[in-house]
């Protein structure tokens, strides 16, 4: 860089004007278009203003006695939430954790001590391998080993034929980075059986387990019953402020509480998060099957609209969503598609694609489509019309 020239200078060395310097970034424009849109497929709570987020607690009196003394280091309302989770999942006990990263490290560390094997078999697209900076190995002394790299869950045959012993099989349900995909119920049952044939325990990364019942046609208790332990999140599906829980045998959970303290998870007071989780279990959990069913309507109408708009190629994955989230792949550069989606939202007031677009190769990008309560306002015709408009904009104004 030439001396005296800042990284905000134009190519000719001049400084941008105040108006240019203040120009919103693509993300800021996308978020503004999403907030201002009269129709979106999802209104995600964690993106809402603080005032709106705090308003969630106005319903706290409906889910817990607010005259009760506040929690200290995990008692009171936190214990009430733990009992509720154990009841829903049909486990002996559950423990609240501030994060899922901590909950799963503790669970797998406890199991490794019991099995004597620190190897954890999991998919390379699993959350700990993609988003946690190698925490399993760097913090907890565990050794992740991987199944095949295909964007799908492992098969029972792969578990049975794996080349080395492992103490735990960890299954992410749904596997988010593969497209929020799930196995069939028979496949999941066979996976659990195959792990136990290898003398391994089964742990479910159930961050989004709450939304899996519609696909499996089974209750939460039946799904959790296939595993030795289960982690669930309170904000990914239930729109709580944060937090997670580890559920399983009472002896495991008691040990997990000790490690939770050692990992720094014995937080002084957590009542806002615990109350928001109870509200989520009360409000959102019963509605999740409806969201999943409507996601299938949205995906089908989206396909019809993109075809009608003249897109030469696209991919909705899975073709029939397994949960209320799915992927859309397009043969365009990420910045081209993002700009088209933003302009469509700004100009029409309907924000069909509010998430960011990730490049996945030359001229190839994808986004995640979330379907929540706001999407129930969209009919199939509404989705079709918006998708056709988006496709027409993309094909007539931007080269692939």
Structure at a glance:
The protein is of the alpha/beta class and 400 residues long.
Describe the protein's architecture and organization:
This protein has 400 residues and is α/β, with parallel strands linked by helices. The chain is globular and about 60 Å long. It is built from 16 helices and 13 strands. Helices cover 42% and strands 14% of the residues. The strands form three sheets. The protein has a seven-stranded mixed beta sheet, with helices on both faces. It has a four-stranded antiparallel beta sheet with strand order 9-10-13-12, covered by helices on one side. The protein has a two-stranded parallel sheet with strand order 1-11. α4 runs parallel beside α13 and α15 packs across α16.
Helix fraction bin = 40-55%
Strand content: 5-15%
Average pLDDT metric: 94
Spatial gap, N to C terminus: 34 Å
Strand order, main sheet: write it out: 2-8-7-6-5-3-4
The number of helical segments is 16
Q: How would a crystallographer describe the biggest sheet?
A: 7 strands, mixed
Give the secondary structure arrangement, pairings included.
Layout: H1 18-21, H2 26-36, E1 39-40, H3 50-55, H4 77-89, E2 93-97, H5 100-115, E3 119-122, H6 127-131, H7 135-138, E4 143-146, H8 156-160, E5 168-172, H9 185-197, E6 201-206, H10 213-216, H11 220-224, E7 229-233, E8 244-248, H12 250-262, H13 271-283, H14 288-308, E9 315-317, E10 325-330, H15 334-348, E11 350-351, E12 358-361, E13 364-370, H16 380-397
Parallel strand pairs: 1-11, 3-4, 3-5, 5-6, 6-7
Antiparallel strand pairs: 2-8, 7-8, 9-10, 10-13, 12-13
Helix pairs in contact: 2-15, 4-13, 5-12, 14-16, 15-16
């Amino acid at each position: 860089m030439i001396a005296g020239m800042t990284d905000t200078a134009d190519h000719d060395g001049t400084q941008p004007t105040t108006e240019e310097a203040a120009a919103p970034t693509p993300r800021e424009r996308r978020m503004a278009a999403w907030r201002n849109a009269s129709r979106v497929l999802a209104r995600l709570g964690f993106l809402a203003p603080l005032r709106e987020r705090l308003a969630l607690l106005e319903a706290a009196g409906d889910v817990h006695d607010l005259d009760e003394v506040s929690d200290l280091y995990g008692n009171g309302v936190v214990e009430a939430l733990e009992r509720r989770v154990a009841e829903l999942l049909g486990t002996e006990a559950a423990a609240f954790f501030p994060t899922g990263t901590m909950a799963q490290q503790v669970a797998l560390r406890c199991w490794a001590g019991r099995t004597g094997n620190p190897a954890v078999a999991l998919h390379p697209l699993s959350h700990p391998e993609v988003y946690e900076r190698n925490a399993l190995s760097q913090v907890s002394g565990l050794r992740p080993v991987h199944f095949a790299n295909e964007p799908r869950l492992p098969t029972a045959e792969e578990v049975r034929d794996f080349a080395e012993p492992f103490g735990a099989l960890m299954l992410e349900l749904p596997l988010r980075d593969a497209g929020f995909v799930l196995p069939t119920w028979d496949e999941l049952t066979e996976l659990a059986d195959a792990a136990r044939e290898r003398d391994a325990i089964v742990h479910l990364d159930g961050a989004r387990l709450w939304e899996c019942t519609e696909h499996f046609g089974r209750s939460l208790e039946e799904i959790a019953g296939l595993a030795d332990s289960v982690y669930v999140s309170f904000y990914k599906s239930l729109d709580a402020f944060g937090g997670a829980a580890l559920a399983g045998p009472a002896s495991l959970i008691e040990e997990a509480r000790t490690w939770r303290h050692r990992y720094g998870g014995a937080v002084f007071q957590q009542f806002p998060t615990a109350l928001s989780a109870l509200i989520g279990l009360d409000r959102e959990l019963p509605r999740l099957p409806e969201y999943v069913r409507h996601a299938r309507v949205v995906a089908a109408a989206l396909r019809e609209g993109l075809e009608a708009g003249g897109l030469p190629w696209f991919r909705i994955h899975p073709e029939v969503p397994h949960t209320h989230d799915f992927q859309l792949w397009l043969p365009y550069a990420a910045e081209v598609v993002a700009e088209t989606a933003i302009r469509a939202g700004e100009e029409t007031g309907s924000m069909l694609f509010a998430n960011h677009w990730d490049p996945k190769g030359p001229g190839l990008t994808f986004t995640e489509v979330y379907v929540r309560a706001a999407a129930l306002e969209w009919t199939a015709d509404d989705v079709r019309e918006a998708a056709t408009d988006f496709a027409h904009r993309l094909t007539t104004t931007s080269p692939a």
